[in-house]
Every structure is written in C-alpha cells, then in structure tokens.
Amino acid sequence: MPRYFFDTHDGEFHRDDEGSEQADFEAARKEAMIFLPEVARWEIPKDGDHRSFSVFVRDESGAIVYTGTLTYSGLRLTSAG
What we know:
It is a single chain. This protein is 23% helix and 37% strand. The protein is an alpha+beta fold and 81 residues long. It has one domain (3-73). Strands 1, 2, 3, 4 and 5 form a five-stranded antiparallel β-sheet that branches. Strand 1 and strand 2 (13-14) form a beta hairpin. The longest helix is centred in the middle third of the chain and has 19 residues, at 25-43.
C-alpha cells in the first residue's frame, strides 16, 4: 500500500515524517477530511475565535497531491457575562 504524509499548518507548519499507509489517493483524501476537524476540535478552544487549519497530503515521492483548509470564525454577539 502507498504511504501518504499529512503536513498541517495552523499558524505553524508541522511536517509529517511518519505518514500512514492508505489504500489509494481516495482513501488519503478521505483521511485528510476526517483529520482536519479533529485537529480543529482540540486547537480552537485554546486560541481564539479566528483560526484556519490546512492539511497538505504528500505522496511517497514528496509531491503534494491534495490540500484542504478548514476555517473557524466565531463572533460574540452580546457583552454580557
């Protein structure tokens, strides 16, 4: 099975040097779609209301074959409490 690498950027770049085996490109694409919301789930509460998370999927040759971005924007609507 081919190995794909999932580099992330959330204000800082994080290179995936380990990667994971995926059946094919479609499996790697779906893994990226699952991965981004998981990263955001834990990072958004730490650092505010305006965040962007990106994943860059590389194949074994190092070529970027897919990218995705998830953006969160929150706005407080009241001044109470």
